[in-house]
Amino acid sequence: MLKKLLPALLLLLISKGGFAQGPYPAGYFRSPVDTAIALAGNFGEIRPNHFHAGFDIKTNGKEGMPVYAVADGYISRIKISPYGYGKALYIRHPNGYTSVYGHLQSFGTGIADFTRKTQYYKESYEIDTLMEPEQIPVKKGQLIGLSGNTGGSQGPHLHFEIRETATEMPLNPYLFGYRVPDNVPPKITTVVIYPFEEGSVNGRHTPKKIKITYQKGRHSLLNKMDTITVNGSIGFGIETYDTENRSSNQNGVYSIELQAGGKRIYYYEMEKFSFEKARYVNAHIDYAEKQKHNDKIQKCFLSKNNQLGIYKDVLNNGLISFTDDSVHWIRYIVKDYAGNTSELMLKVKSRPKATPTKETTAILNPALYFDCSKENNFSKEDVQVSIPANALYDDIPQFSYSRPSSVKGSFSPLHRIQDAETALQKAYTLSIRPNHLPDTLQPKACIVSVNEKGGKTYEGGSYKDGWVTTQTKSFGNFTVAVDTIPPRIRTAFNYVPKTTVDLSKAKTIGIIASDNLSGIKKYRAKIDGNWVLCEYEFKKDLLFYTFDDTMEKRAHTFEIEVTDDKGNASVLMFSFKR
Question: Which positions ≥6 away from 339 have C-beta within 8 Å?
Answer without folding.
Answer: none
